[in-house]
Design a protein that fits this description.
One of its GO terms (cellular component) is lysosome. Its EC number is 3.2.1.51. InterPro entries: FUC_metazoa-typ, GH, Glyco_hydro_29, Glyco_hydro_29_N. The chain is of the alpha/beta class. Strands 5-4-3-2-1-7-6 form a seven-stranded parallel β-sheet. Strands 8-9-14-11 form a four-stranded antiparallel β-sheet. A three-stranded antiparallel β-sheet has the order 10-13-12, with no helix packed on it. The longest helix has 24 residues. The N and C termini lie far apart (54 Å).
């Protein structure tokens, strides 16, 4: 049945277009003069003093111990399991399945999440050790999941239903920090994208900008639009813990006035955390970004295993499913990566002092794939015995001190034996531990200590396919 559903989904990508199109609802982009004036004043006024990073506000200090977050890319693309936004770009390596844009935007007519119950999957995440969540309020396609004053979204297509309020309420009900993903760049905004940019073969073939003054004015109008939407996000839902931005740009304008914008964001939400991607454009074919990394936390390790400490606070975001095509969006196949992959990325992030933000997109109906719940159930069982080794655990005292990854808590170490590790464990503790404990069973592990080094071999009968954690009690 699932194969039949997926085949029907793929066939639907070539279905006739509905009324929603790239240039639909032009009235939603008539920006008020007061909003334009505010944007102009913001970029014309230098910040009074340099912004302190990370945010020193007491309400922001949860981040270093957060450890594990749930990223959710959700929107009109979820209806057919498409790559968010990028699938409207023809001939693009990481998209192109729902091009041209009119075909992609026709999905807005079909997006009506009748089974949307964020409490269900956020409770499953909480039980599995997740401490925060980040939902795409608006991706590059411009479709807003709340009834915004400007742009397209639920205001035009879902009778003004506010999908964000339900999400925020569910986060708070489950004790999760509330995160909003927001894309400043909006491909539905008139004038942001040249028609050639919707095809990877022609997207660099662009006409020159002949009137820089008019272009600057157009940029300020777009900034006014973006700020108005961000203001809605930061004033309608109470305290927001994180704003995960994903690239502001306007062709011909180099300075995106990052520090002024971030200071303005803090004026609305003093305890908020903002990542490093306002002016730093990160795309699937350029995961390292093209700009200066400036924010409360950095995001260098997109879809790549962390290998070093990039900044004081940082997160590693990656995709939980592996089916080619949907990418960051909903995977109709539910092809979640093995638990060994999950624990490798979680341990790597925590051992270097970062958080692991892992993405699983809900379906167009609003629920997670059944395999999501199987994964979270398995992780919850692991957390019952080994949670202390990752959630809120400290970083390694030195990657050179062991042949396995280390996390810490106080003076104690946690050695992470992943499934592909079959050797003798060696850890340079510098002093003899009082005992070694296999967290999964609670039993003591025999070990040798010589010249500052602890060595042991974990019996194969005690190994699993997840992460076998041995606690070194000092």
């Amino acid at each position: 049945m699932k194969k039949i559903w997926y085949l029907c989904t793929l066939l639907s990508l070539s279905a006739p277009l509905a009324q929603a199109q790239l240039n639909a609802h032009p009235e939603a982009y008539k920006i008020d003069k007061k909003d334009i004036k505010r944007a102009h004043e913001l970029i014309s006024t230098p910040v009074k003093q340099p912004l302190v990073l990370p945010n020193p506000n007491p309400d922001a200090q949860w981040f270093p111990d957060a450890s594990l977050g749930l990223f959710m890319h959700w929107g009109i693309h979820s209806v057919v399991g498409a790559q968010p936004s990028w699938d409207m770009i023809a001939n693009y390596e990481w998209g192109g399945r729902v091009s041209p844009p009119d075909k992609y935007y026709a999905l807005a007519e079909r997006f009506n999440p009748r089974d949307y119950d964020p409490n269900k999957y956020l409770k499953a995440a909480k039980d599995a050790g997740f401490t925060y969540a980040v939902l795409t309020t608006k991706h590059h396609d411009g479709y807003a999941l709340w009834p915004s004053k400007y742009g397209i979204g639920t205001k035009q297509y879902m009778n003004g239903r506010d999908l964000l309020k339900e999400y925020v309420d569910a986060c708070r009900a489950n004790g999760l920090k509330v995160g909003f993903y927001f894309s400043p760049r909006d491909w539905h905004y008139p004038g942001l994208m040249h028609p050639n940019e919707f095809d990877a073969k022609t997207w660099r073939d662009l006409p020159p900008i002949t009137d820089s003054t008019a272009n600057q004015q157009a940029y300020e109008q777009f900034l006014a639009f973006v700020m108005a939407q961000m203001e809605e996000l930061l004033t309608r839902y109470g305290k927001i813990d994180m704003l995960w931005l994903d690239g502001m740009n306007w062709r011909g304008v180099a300075d995106m006035h990052t520090e002024q914008v971030y200071a303005w964001i803090r004026s609305l939400q003093p305890g908020i955390l903002v990542n490093d991607r306002w002016a730093n454009i990160v795309n699937p074919d350029n995961p390292q970004g093209n700009g200066v990394s400036f924010g409360d936390f950095t995001t260098q390790f997109e879809c790549t295993l962390p290998t070093y400490i990039p900044s004081r606070w940082w997160d590693h975001c990656d995709i939980w499913t592996s089916t080619p095509g949907p990418g960051w969006g909903y995977d109709p196949n539910g092809a979640f990566r093995p638990l060994s992959w999950f624990f490798r990325h979680l341990a790597a992030s925590r051992s270097l002092g970062g958080n692991f933000l892992i993405n699983a997109g809900p379906s167009g109906d609003g629920d997670m794939h059944p395999n999501f719940y199987k994964q979270t159930d398995s992780i919850a069982r692991w957390m019952q015995h080994s949670k202390e080794s990752v959630i809120g655990a400290g970083p390694t005292p030195g990657v050179q001190l062991s042949n396995v990854m280390i996390t810490t808590r106080g003076n104690d170490w946690y050695l992470h034996l992943l499934p592909d590790f079959k050797k003798k464990v060696s850890a340079r503790t510098g002093k003899q531990p009082s005992e070694l404990i296999l967290l999964r069973t609670g039993e003591r592990i025999p070990f040798d200590y010589n010249d500052g080094f602890v060595t042991f071999v974990l019996d194969p009968s005690k190994r699993t396919t997840t992460d076998d954690v041995v606690k070194v009690v000092m």
